Fold this sequence. Notes:
- The chain is of the alpha+beta class and 115 residues long.
- The protein is built from 4 helices and 5 strands; from the N terminus they run ββαβααββα.
- Strands 3-5-4 form a 3-stranded antiparallel β-sheet.
Amino acid sequence: MKDQVRERPNSDFTITVEAPEFARLANMLAAVIERLNRLDEPDEVLNVHQASKLLQIGVNEVRGLARGGHLPAAKIGRGWRFSRRDLLEWMRKQARANAAQASERPGMEPRARKE
């Protein structure tokens, strides 16, 4: 299925876009808008204990993820430092990846909550 988009009503310029490509471009645009909106988020430098509290995981797990390069972090002296904004972005990416992975597996949809 092809969608045709005209740039201006009086223009001869026409773009033909395949539906899957259109969806991909829409997702890319949404991601850019989301990043721009997050520029207003306050950023601060966190130590391991603060990062642990933010992510709600143990201090040793934070250190292990940082050491393994899985968390965005910088080793300064003997301690790790984290950007609050980068950690929140990392968490969002993890959530999106988990959701995508769950949607690819049949029968792995979230269960409806019992009211």
